[in-house]
Amino acid sequence: MRSIFFLSICLHLVTVANAQKSYVPRIETCDCAFKVDTNFTRLIPPEFLNDFVFQLKKEIAARAECGYLVVPENRKKADARMIRLPFIILRSAVGSERKDPVLFTSGGPGNSSLGWINQGSTAGFGELRDCIAFEQRGTRYALPHLRTLELDSVMRIAWRKNLNKDSMWMVGVRLYKNALLKRGIDLAGYNTSETVDDIGDLLKTLQIDSVNLYGGSYSGGLMTAVLQRYPERVRSLILDSPLPTFSPIDEDEHRHFMEGLHVLCEPVRKDSADEKYADLEHRFDTYFRSIQNKTFTLAMTDPVTTQELNVDYDKNELLDVVVQALNDGSQIPHVASIIVDIINGTHASYVRPRIEKRLRGRPHPDGMRMLVYCSDATDYHDEAVIQQFFKLYPYMEGYHINDVWKPVCDCWEIPPVVPSLKKYFYSDAPVLVADGAMDAACSPRYITELKHYLPNAQAFVFSKLSHGVGGRDFNGMIKQFLNAPMKKIELSNLNIIPVER
């Protein structure tokens, strides 16, 4: 059955033309054991290689069909090489006749999407529809995978020798770029516009005329861009904590953190009888103003060399502790306590594991993340606006809430994404959109803006959550929405608040 399916797909060749070249996207079948690009895995010690092979869980493997979408690396170039983008189709549990699957791709940008199938993320709505996980170009299981270890290596040196982190980051980025260029990577081919057309090609080649698009964070905006370019194929959108393509995220994100902090601290101020939480937001501001030029030192053992180190850190590392905790849903109940510890000067238990991870592991961003952020954002923001924010919160200056900032993008020297993707647009497509009230990355105000341009959107704020609402409640809402996209979603959780305007 599976071979018949893929034979029919391979015979269905769709010719897509652009101004410079006609190409034929095609499907290559595979056994679902997707492997990471050998250009990256050859840099990894052999004992870790099994960590870089994707394996489907046994209980779902029988319903899965896998393949690669083969498309040009850069559709603007007549001599572009072809790249391979993995996807998994998980057939519905009951063999439904419904022909409008759910297509998911992950956020980041740069995150892998295939694990969505393994995590049981289709629970509650995958019984009646096929679900497709599609790996974006340049990400973990795509070929090529835009990952090197130069930046990781340089930053290990920076931490061990207490060198300037921003300067060393730029050294690492230059080495990163050169390594990708030596592999023949066309850096201009990795952006949102190309990924939108990848999804369009996948739908056409799989003969999908009606699809429900599901994305979160960056891919929430990506899915609206697919709607903008391929409206005739989109039945509905499901957006979790979306980053709209029109947003000036470099101007906004620091402020989003301050808004999320306020939402966290306000009920603590009102409801807590514990004095240690009194006036927490003001104390946070006062403390960070007092340490904005201060350096702290942590005595620790290097987890790799076992040498004793005295590692310097500053307010940037402490801000990052709070930002990451605020954006980690599992940490939300503990964030107020973390802030109290930090402003009381007890930093070590939070800073030590973060530095150990940098010395031991490979935590730095993929090339795809940097390229997409640079093409999407850098030429579409105003540095003067960012400086206005820093005048209000001077301790935020010099803190890179995102690991991609302007000098990084100046180094990559890639063209901006097409202007049409940065514009607002109207659509009557049904949309389910939600965000957490404490989202420190993509403010809930974005869902209000989307609702303005998408009048058939049903929008919700999860009052106790942050970035990425996911989970049982949201899956239940998705199931209702997919069954009747224009029908009002019924809620039982009082912590989920409809956005009326």
Describe the protein's architecture and organization:
The protein is α/β, with parallel strands linked by helices and 501 residues long. 39% of the residues lie in helices and 16% in strands. The chain has 18 helices and 14 strands. It has helices at residues 2-11, 38-41, 58-61, 115-118, 150-161, 165-182, 192-205, 218-229, 249-271, 280-290, 315-326, 335-343, 348-360, 367-377, 383-392, 406-412, 445-453, 471-483, and strands at residues 16-17, 22-23, 26-30, 64-72, 82-90, 102-105, 131-134, 211-216, 234-240, 295-301, 308-314, 431-436, 457-462, 496-499. A ten-stranded mixed beta sheet has the order 3-4-5-7-6-8-9-12-13-14, with helices on both faces. The chain has a two-stranded antiparallel sheet with strand order 1-2. α6 (165-182) packs parallel to α16 and α9 packs parallel to α15. It is globular. 41% of the residues are buried. Residues 1-20 have low confidence and may be disordered.
